[in-house]
Design goal:
Elements (H helix, E strand, L loop, with lengths): L1 H17 L11 H22 L4 H47 L22 H5 L27 H33 L7 H7 L9 H25 L5 H42 L6 H4 L1 H24 L3 H46 L8 E6 L5 E5 L10 E2 L9 H38 L15 E2 L2 H18 L6 H23 E2 L10 H24 L18 H10 L2 H10 L2 H82 L5 H10 L10 H12 L3 H11 L12
Parallel strand pairs: 1-3, 4-5
Antiparallel strand pairs: 1-2
Length: 740
Amino acid sequence: MRKKMVMLKEARSYTAKFEGKLSKSGGHDRVAQLKATYSKISRELSNFASLLVPWEGRIKHIESYFGGVVASYFTFLRWIFWTNIVQAVIIGGVIIVPEVLFGPDWGSVDYKTVPVNETEGAAYLKTSWDFDGYLKYSPLFYGYYSSTEQFSSGYSMPLAYLIANLVAFSYNFIAILRQIAINAKDKKASDKDDNFTFSWKTFASWDYMIGNSETAKNKFLSITVSIHESITEQKEAKKKVGKKLLFFRVIANLLVLMVLASSTYAIYLTVQRSQKFEKRIKDEGPNSVNAWERNEVSIVMSLATALFPMLFDLIAKMEDYHPRVALQKSLYRILILYLLNLYTLYIALYWKIENIQESVVEANATYYSQFNLSETIFCNQRDRNGDYKLLYSNDTMASNTTCVPQFTAETTCWETMVGQELFKLTVFDMVTTIGLIYVIEFFRALFIKIVNACWCWDLERNFPGYATFSLAENLLHLVYNQGMIWMGTLFAPGLPAFNLIKLLAIFYVRAWAVMVCNVPEERIFKAGSDNFYLLILLFMLYVVMIPVAFAMVTISTSTICGPFRDVEFMYYALTEWMEEVLPGSVNQVLDYIASPGALIPIFILLFLVLNYLKSSNDALKGSVADLKKQLKYERTEGKKKVFSMADSDGKSKQRKDKDKNAKARTSVTALQALHRMGGLKDNRSLSLIEVSEPGGHRKDQPENKTRSARNIRKGTSSLLALRALHRMGAFTNAKTSNPS
């Protein structure tokens, strides 16, 4: 191996020295030299870029021990981490940084100042854990940002806030669809049939350029795992489903429905209890509830998302599906569980928002009932210029009456409240995930390692055994976490930046736990397509975008905080800007496009186009399947032709040998007949007859002479034998004197 490495280094140095210098023009082709230099630089840059891919070595190390299924989780986590970096840059660069640089200073306005009644406990750990106090009035949440239409630099925060969130959603859609297209292209390029699977893996999988013992060990383990995967594929392809197994699968589906219903009902009851606790806090103060009651919603949701997938894994053992099919079913079930949890939380928060707005309307009605509406000028909140806007006026009294400011009954910024809940839920989810890794996997493995020597049975092979890596649970946890981030970014701009810290912590803790605490699955199987995971993520993005869009266009904004306090709905910031900037004719066209008369035909047209594309895709899939079958048939027929040609060559050779033997026998028979007729007179001819007789040889003749005689017999025809006898003068009468 050392000699091979030395020769490789010498070859590389020689190639680097003379690459591109030889050409048809005698070594003076500058274009060829430039091309060679460019290819060399590109190759070196690509090699250097591969070294900069984060966590690549760690993921390959995990793959060598646990296979591509477990490694696909970490690859998926790394891809999500990169998308979150871009999203954090968009939100931070467009929203957070301009507000900090150009907006009002902290403490100079009400929405950036901690109220006097909250100042005492604003820095306590309990307050910070609930994201109240100073964190509530920080750039982490919606209420911190100002509604100034233009800063001194001309920057419009309401418009930037809305566009940044729309761009973030659009980027995530484009990134997921682009990655799906790349994976589909790579899969098409690397798509191979499974002919001679074990032969390829056994005789053509080793990398002979490996010179490190650790790398060789990992490669050996990787090949072993891939062979296990192929064996599992062959076994599962031959399995048959019986009636007993079908019965167990029906029972398993019923149990799954019961688990989903219990999770939804538990969260619903928790939300109902939380409203009672909030009412108690308003009436009796913050000390009237304990820590569990204050964080009950977040705790119950975190436990439900962490423990219920384990029940799904236990139920899946009853069904005995192929490992990949079992993984897909577990993904669907856990996805439904997470979506139910998220939508239950969103509905509960929507009820809270409605209660807040109803209480504000009642308080305003009570306040304004003391005025005579025909003689008083009322004002709404201050506009962007700091002046009061007229809410109601009597033209006859407008010149003599002072504007009465609006009574501010609203004391809760519901956007910040939603951001606090989602931020709290994200933190609880991180703590619960890392805590369960240590409790269920690390301490379990430590207990088995210490106690197994003195226990009644083998704890490693039997109950409880070491933990295995649950791909469905961990993968859907990433999707669920990303859904919370997408849903909460509108209400908490600091959430994507915090999610980067969470993903880093989960990656390193999970990678450590896999190598230290987990064991490979008993049935190792090939990883499915990464597009399946991305499609689930795309579906989650679409689902969480619905409540965010609903909040933008349907729910009235708070009038005491945030960049949209001066407009009724969030999307008005964009429509008002478009009316100011765009010409009137363009606005009329946009208004018509946004009307139901134009949207309904557009949706119908999109539906028809999608239906056409789906039909075309199905037809192309059928054509591809037919071509694959044809290629397989041609390949099989080609093999049969090769085998038949080999058989025909062997048979023709045997036939020729038989013909030669028959001719030789004919010659010998003719000679024997001549001898009996008296046509042969010397002993030389008699010895030739004895030698030429098939299967016969003289007793005093050695074995090698017998073989030579047999070879002569096989290659001699009747005519040649007769001519030889004629030249020797063996024929005595005229009848046999002419051998032709």
